[in-house]
Specification:
The protein is mainly alpha-helical. The protein folds into two domains: 95 residues, no CATH class; 67 residues, no CATH class. It contains nine helices and two strands; from the N terminus they run ααααααααββα. A two-stranded antiparallel ribbon has the order 1-2. Helix 1 crosses helix 2 and helix 1 crosses helix 4. The radius of gyration is 38 Å and the shape is rod-shaped.
């Protein structure tokens, strides 16, 4: 069985491992240098230069003597390793905070009701219920107005997707008539039917 072809631009496992090793080496070297820089500043010594390969090899050989590893005094070994540990903790904390914020934002986007599939977009809302859409109907709604304003053609219902939504005067009148037809007799000004108690007079 022949192996599946590799997608164009995709990294092989070997390349991915090499890149990971290089990245880890560079980050590790920068962390060790940051520890040396902090120790040197606290001890009153000049900050050493950054040399990733030399730094890692030297510290592996002289882990108990940072001055020999960096080729110059940087301070006591305990302070160096304490400073390096502090840098690692700070980076780990920053990474954890960043991951938590990213996860929270992703969860918020997933549960955002404005992102529910099927809801109208901002463009669709403006096209159907926006002010320009209402003014475009001015010739049918209020043909006698030379320069109609949106407030003369309808009523504002609210906003959606940041767009002010309007209902035309025609739609408002139609809804009002429907509500009046569906209302009980007493709400339309008709006298209520007399009940059994109305036949008794005091």
């Amino acid at each position: 069985m022949s192996p599946s072809p590799t997608r164009p631009g995709a990294l092989s496992i070997t390349d991915a491992l090499m890149l990971t090793a290089v990245f880890a080496g560079v980050v590790g070297s920068l962390v060790l240098w940051a520890g040396a820089a902090i120790t040197a500043v606290l001890s009153g010594h000049p900050v050493p230069e950054v040399n990733p390969v030399t730094d890692l090899l030297a510290l592996a050989e002289h882990s108990g003597n940072p001055a020999a590893a960096w080729g110059q005094p940087v301070g006591p070994a305990w302070l160096y390793w304490a400073s390096t540990a502090s840098v690692i903790v700070a980076l780990a904390t920053a990474g954890a905070v960043g991951w938590r914020v990213s996860t929270r934002n992703k969860t918020a986007r997933i549960h955002d009701p404005r992102r529910i599939q099927g809801l109208a977009s901002r463009t669709e809302v403006a096209k159907v219920a926006g002010a320009k859409a209402l003014i475009a109907q001015a010739g049918d709604l209020r043909p006698s107005l030379a320069h109609p304003q949106v407030t003369e053609l309808g009523h504002r219902l609210g906003s959606a997707r940041g767009v002010d939504c309007y209902a035309s005067v025609e739609d408002c009148a139609r809804m009002s008539n429907r509500a009046r037809v569906r209302a009980p007799p007493t709400s339309r000004g008709l006298p209520a039917q007399s009940g059994p108690a109305s036949s008794f007079s005091s």
